[in-house]
Amino acid sequence: MIIVMKPNAKKESIQNIIEIIEGKGLTAHISNGKEVTIIGVVGDKSKLQDQNLEIADDVDKIVPVTESYKLANKKFHPEPSVIKVGNTSIGGDEFIIMSGPCAVESREQLLETARAIKKAGAQILRGGAYKPRTSPYAFQGLEEEGLKFMKEAREETGLAVVCEVTSLAAIEAAVKYVDMLQIGARNMQNFYLLKEAGKTGLPVLLKRGLSATIDEWLNASEYIIAEGNPNVVLCERGIRTFETATRNTLDISAVPVIKEKSHLPIIVDPSHATGVRKYVKPLAKCAVAVGADGLMIEAHPNPAIALSDGPQSLTFPQLNELCSELRPLAELMGKKF
Amino acid sequence: MIIVMKPNAKKESIQNIIEIIEGKGLTAHISNGKEVTIIGVVGDKSKLQDQNLEIADDVDKIVPVTESYKLANKKFHPEPSVIKVGNTSIGGDEFIIMSGPCAVESREQLLETARAIKKAGAQILRGGAYKPRTSPYAFQGLEEEGLKFMKEAREETGLAVVCEVTSLAAIEAAVKYVDMLQIGARNMQNFYLLKEAGKTGLPVLLKRGLSATIDEWLNASEYIIAEGNPNVVLCERGIRTFETATRNTLDISAVPVIKEKSHLPIIVDPSHATGVRKYVKPLAKCAVAVGADGLMIEAHPNPAIALSDGPQSLTFPQLNELCSELRPLAELMGKKF
Amino acid sequence: MIIVMKPNAKKESIQNIIEIIEGKGLTAHISNGKEVTIIGVVGDKSKLQDQNLEIADDVDKIVPVTESYKLANKKFHPEPSVIKVGNTSIGGDEFIIMSGPCAVESREQLLETARAIKKAGAQILRGGAYKPRTSPYAFQGLEEEGLKFMKEAREETGLAVVCEVTSLAAIEAAVKYVDMLQIGARNMQNFYLLKEAGKTGLPVLLKRGLSATIDEWLNASEYIIAEGNPNVVLCERGIRTFETATRNTLDISAVPVIKEKSHLPIIVDPSHATGVRKYVKPLAKCAVAVGADGLMIEAHPNPAIALSDGPQSLTFPQLNELCSELRPLAELMGKKF
Amino acid sequence: MIIVMKPNAKKESIQNIIEIIEGKGLTAHISNGKEVTIIGVVGDKSKLQDQNLEIADDVDKIVPVTESYKLANKKFHPEPSVIKVGNTSIGGDEFIIMSGPCAVESREQLLETARAIKKAGAQILRGGAYKPRTSPYAFQGLEEEGLKFMKEAREETGLAVVCEVTSLAAIEAAVKYVDMLQIGARNMQNFYLLKEAGKTGLPVLLKRGLSATIDEWLNASEYIIAEGNPNVVLCERGIRTFETATRNTLDISAVPVIKEKSHLPIIVDPSHATGVRKYVKPLAKCAVAVGADGLMIEAHPNPAIALSDGPQSLTFPQLNELCSELRPLAELMGKKF
């Protein structure tokens, strides 16, 4: 932590800062520059947490030098994490496809989809039983009934299953049926939900918030890990920008940035990132080539009548075709699929 | 709802769309332009909710012509709403100041603040008992104990009190102590929480999400109103943009836009919008002049040691000074204060 | 300038940085923290301009501590600048209204507008003779003929006149006819144009780029001032964000931020910021209350048939009404108008 | 073009719109919906260019149904364009690498680079002789002398050469020495420069503006093509968003979106998009996999002392390694390289 003083800061202002720092048992390191004085803090900066130095006299700005997340930080955990989900693992040698409908609509729809995605090569079935929708008048999900269908699909196919949770009640229901919990983009900073998901010990798929920086995203993962649950997988799904040609802007650079800053695995969701089916294939390929650990791809028996996100869902033949094109690419990147 | 076909769309593709529309008991209105054919849908478009026409053959795009929110929409409710909160009202003739600390830290801190803001002219006391913080290692709030202090402050001063809620448990506790619930920016699309807040019947202060469009914000308010609770007050608190000179970018245009699109009152929070104390005064003034119904201003007995958001909090003398400068401005705008 | 090393940086890496710094005749100030080593550079950091220290071994990041603009910086020029334009001045006691059509369309249109805005109280006539338009098929301006009409309007009314310039040829023409040059948002980082405008010595109205940070904007003004021309007036006109309810998002906080960082005057353009006529009045008021030095307001004899930006232009009666509502507000803010 | 009326629009308001449309020789197509009336315009909508219908009484909004760019539009030119540049072509079967230093610094630096990039497999040499820099105190380029070195490098190696132009003077110089002109991101809406570049007939590399939508970018290309010069190549180089982990956010979706909307080739510049050398390789790979026609990669004999953009430049061994990893990927995508 560095405190940059204003040009011509008064001696007393500098002395005041030094006293606050030393009063907390830390060391102040003074550097008198040509224009400004800089004060470095040596020691555990969390001791200064209740001191708002930026409003002290003659302070120009405070510059943090270390990240506020520790458990998710690669600096203190250099080996990449491999997260076990059902019979498969994310972050290891295998390239993972999660697929399934946006919303679980019926037993038949889900079982049919589970069989189709397994055939295409996917390892994990996704399906929403609790749907966060922009409008209260849109379909809101089958809730626990939907979870039961997911469990049945898992038992029949052996696929691992993941479902989004949106409340403590949903978490309490989901732990009985699924292998992995998903925290959606709109709840990425619902810290209460993050803690509750952490407490379950189940692996958590943490989607990036629409306007979350990568640092905020890793801080959100820290909430889960701090509950003693290191099983977090990140999912880049597009951020909000001024561009409207796609529903969101896929921030593909997030993949190498996360690989640089964190040991957690990261997958990419091109379906939600674009909202447009015809862009799913090229973006899925680019996610493999950039080094992602997997993909989340929406698929539906009949996208034209899907109750949620039909326009971005693939048909089963389209999913099959996509997977066969991804296979040689994944191999070229050194991944099994 | 308008369906724009691609240039040279096949006759069968157009016929297919017409059949889907008519199959739902609606009327299709065809307009053959020079370059493209446009199909207007006459009737209740919600009947087409389970039809994803954008992926039908030869469809270029779908253009909605009406908003998806109805209860919050000024078109169907032209009179401005006035929301009663404790002994005061928001959206009427009076200009409202909500003030108080970011976080309730102790009984003394809160009572001292309540007396000071009342003296300055504020009508509503704010204070956070459940704090959503970016890092899990930051202060998380006093929870129910904090709510008790709020109630005590209300009883002593007669101020109305508002507190942020972040979970169903927090709502269940808060209804026993406060006059108004606040849904914070990070939970604006926590639809589960919106519904639960709606069910309480208490007035709800709904902050705009960091990257929420005005349409999404009004749709979020619709979730609350649809539970039979029309007592929603909106709060603009800055949106996320590329600019970093302020913590967020105060979207001051949101005030006249909301006044145009909705009947709900709207207040402005310059403290969170900028994160910088010295910018609070000019932005508070501009909020009065633009026609806002009130302000939320953070104040603290000693901002230098506030446990949360100290750098943007006013001291009590600063709050006093601000209020006396706002008074003639509010009067010029036709508001009592 | 501070160099933050990675945790566990090798001794040789630290030594290497020190040698580069000392090799340029500067002093390296080492601070060994608990987790990381920080190296402060004491002396003229521009000597390190051709050294890309961020890619040296074990460097985590470089943190600048001083701004790259000097001439526009309030730190080195604390008194606010007052810029003379024709018979009036911007940045002093007077609140300035620049008004006129987006595009000069004809002699009659311009003269009629000049008379009307003068009557309403405006001091400066604006009008575009060279129009940057998104589509090449839209009206591109009358060029030098338009400038002649501006000069005629100036002579008849005594108003100062300002015109946007988009090329060296336009500058060479404009200097013969107008009192102030405008650099538009799309050319804010057309550094060639900035230098050429600087060389003329005429006052320059520098609009903020659609996605320019405040720092980049002040650096752009530095290009003009560095040519020996200190007569720069800034104009906030909205930035690009995800919100589409207004054409751009007026960053009203830019006014107090500029007042904090620079001595240059700043005006606000609510017409371009919103693109919607009905929002011009509330945003004009808010610009006065936030402390701006003036406003740019588009007005047209008949907005319904304006060749450019009609939807955001005021009629003359609307301009009159606006000015009479702004007057008491400006007085309350301590400005003459 | 569709005009959406407000609910309860008066008959006279609707009649007024119809008369304006018919007065221009166009046909108005009325559709009376349940809530609102919609008026479609049949015929050449450019005839309504001087009518600002959005401010007519009772008009809610205007919805365009066709794009304003025609020459760049795939709808009217379905075959992909292949643009010849020197001895090579962009947009055909070959995957193109443009490489070289950000700024031409000396004859030796440029010739050494030209030889190295040729050996690595690049087909086009880039180098800046006119540098747009945020600060006026940064290196501004060698100007015409730099162009001479580019020509010499072309003659020695046979590589095609491309150089950014920032003014008419720069264009007039560049046409004597280079095979392709580059319009940089900051000048993407410098419409004057676009027209002048168009007039030369040379191929133009048009970088996307930092905050330009894809529609604005294609409209900018239309300015060049409308001068009779169809030889435009687009370059995605990152857009400005709230994320700061990378200098800009690479909008990789722009590649499939451009392939859907336009016939122009598109390349990707991961160096400028991220500003960080270690992210260049993964993003280069992802650009190949997403279907781009080529890459622009900055390379320098000694990035540590590059006068511009050193931190994002590759060394020659790094460029070699990158190219050998790209080769099998390009082949998998059906491109020769």
From TrEMBL, chains A, B, C, D:
Any one GO BP annotation for this protein: aromatic amino acid family biosynthetic process
SUPFAM superfamilies xrefs: Aldolase
Domain of life: Bacteria
Signal peptide residue numbers: none
Residues in DAHP synthetase I/KDSA domain copies: 87-326
Keyword Transferase: yes
InterPro entries: Aldolase_TIM, Class-I_DAHP_synthase, DAHP1/KDSA, DAHP_snth_FXD, DAHP_syn_2
UniProt-recorded Gene Ontology molecular function terms: 3-deoxy-7-phosphoheptulonate synthase activity; aldehyde-lyase activity
DAHP synthase ferredoxin-like domain: residues covered: 1-67
First-tier enzyme category under EC: transferase
Protein keywords: Transferase
EC code: 2.5.1.54
NCBIfam families, per database record: DAHP_synth_Bsub (TIGR01361), PRK08673.1 (NF006421), PRK12595.1 (NF009239)
Identification of the protein by name: 3-deoxy-7-phosphoheptulonate synthase
Organism phylogeny: Bacteria, Bacillati, Bacillota, Clostridia, Lachnospirales
